[in-house]
Design brief:
The chain has 104 residues and is mainly alpha-helical. It has 4 helices and 2 strands, in the order αααββα. A hairpin with a 5-residue loop joins strand 1 and strand 2.
Length: 104
């Protein structure tokens, strides 16, 4: 039997993105399927399909208690962004110091 989500059209993509957004702020505690369905205004069955698609793509994970949260990959992406931002700020700070010192 094929384990891919049944609905793959543009509507299902938007639904999955709404579910993905609803997971924000719940990385440790997660949300239940019902809580997500209530949050996005859709049926638990449709939310389940969206969660299956997000899980298949590595964007969401089911916690040990059955609740859902963003995947570790997303958290790693946020960490990479923070490091990239810190590096850019350090370069800007260095350039400002050089300008203030009159260096070329």
């Amino acid at each position: 039997m094929d384990s891919t989500p049944k609905s793959t059209g543009p509507g299902s993509a938007r639904r999955a993105l709404r579910v993905f957004k609803a997971l924000r702020g719940h990385a440790l505690t997660g949300l239940s399927n019902k809580e997500l369905a209530d949050a996005v205004g859709d049926s638990p069955v449709n939310v389940c399909r969206a969660l299956e698609a997000l899980e298949a793509e590595g964007l969401a994970l089911r916690l040990d208690d059955g609740r859902w949260a963003h995947s570790v990959w997303l958290l790693q992406t946020a960490e990479h962004f923070a490091r990239e931002t810190e590096s850019a700020l350090a370069r800007i700070h260095e350039l400002r110091q050089r300008v203030a010192a009159g260096a070329r």
